[in-house]
Design brief:
The protein has 306 residues and is mostly beta strands. It has two helices and 21 strands. The chain starts with a strand and ends with a helix.
């Protein structure tokens, strides 16, 4: 019985190897891989899912650059070698040299049993001086066109939802994206971050919160629709701060996902070459902490006045 497949990244190619329940997995020679894909990007767990609802995992062969190329699970033949930009079943391709695509997440956002694509489009209208970064959502479905050609700026009638952040000419919005249900309402919420954004002389790095309720009710989501913004303390001018390497995990075991961000090049004040990892609790915990700090501040002010 075949249990699962191992996806292994090599030099310029990705290999898929099956694991048998009886034999288990010990080791495999390079020539024994079941499937090899050339010109492929390194595999990421958050970019694996079933976007056509047939029960098979679809292989994202390329997820960044001028195009996103996907091979459906039902059409993968073992013993074959594929070229990512030629042997695809579905592709999203940019129109022009000043657009860059990054597939950020594959997850069933709208609970319809089809995994959905969350894509970042980065477009420069002036040859690279300024950049416009947006998040796009394409809901999963049974059938896809062979290719979706985007407009020069990344727009397309195929997108189900477009998310625009506050103005930032550097295009840092949605540099990192995390998805989980932070308010436990049964809907996934999206958290794009902009770790390089300098908000003030003492603040750098932002995480935005967009609730599943907003995503469900709007096709065009703008900054005014965001639920909250978390602004980080500035640690360093030269590297990214809050929101870099953003991901989530239930760190304290309370059943709620917590935000985690890290930067190997960032060190706290007074230290060098250490790197930094920060953990933020869920929104409810965050609000309780802020309320408690505010209450202490009010009490201290009252004591001073007395």
């Amino acid at each position: 019985m075949i249990l699962l497949g191992l996806v292994i990244s090599g030099f310029g190619y990705v290999c898929l190897d099956r694991v048998d329940e009886a034999e288990g997995y010990t080791s495999v020679k390079e020539t024994e891989y079941d499937v090899r894909i050339y010109q492929a990007d390194p595999p990421l767990k958050k970019l694996m899912g079933d976007i056509d609802g047939d029960g098979l995992i679809d292989m994202v062969m390329k997820y960044r650059g001028n195009g996103i190329y996907i091979k459906f699970g039902r059409s993968i033949e073992y013993g074959r070698t594929y070229n990512a930009t030629e042997d695809y079943d579905f592709a999203i391709i940019g129109n022009g040299t000043q657009i860059y695509l990054r597939l950020k997440y594959i997850i069933d956002l709208n609970n319809d049993f089809y995994d959905d694509l969350i894509v970042n489009t980065l477009y420069s209208p002036d040859g690279g001086t300024t950049w416009d970064s947006r998040l796009r959502i394409l809901y999963g479905r049974d059938n896809y066109p062979k290719i979706i050609y985007l407009e020069e700026n990344g727009n397309s009638s195929h997108w189900n939802v477009t998310i625009s952040g506050p103005y930032d000419p550097s295009g840092g919005f949605a540099d990192y994206v995390e998805v989980f249900d932070y308010d436990n309402d049964g809907l996934y919420d999206i958290f794009p971050s902009n770790p390089g954004l300098i908000v003030s002389p003492d603040e750098k790095g932002v995480i935005y919160g967009i609730s599943g309720r907003v995503l469900k009710s709007k096709n065009e989501v703008t900054y005014g629709d965001f639920d909250f913004t978390i602004i980080g303390k500035k640690y360093d001018n030269d590297v990214q701060n809050l929101g870099h390497g953003l991901f989530s995990i239930d760190f304290d075991g309370d059943g709620n996902e917590d935000w985690v961000w890290s930067d190997v090049f960032l060190s706290p004040p007074g230290r060098t070459g250490t790197g930094l990892v920060r953990i933020l609790g869920t929104l409810l915990e965050w609000m309780v902490i802020m309320a408690w700090e505010r209450a202490i501040s009010i009490m201290m002010e009252s004591m001073i006045l007395c």
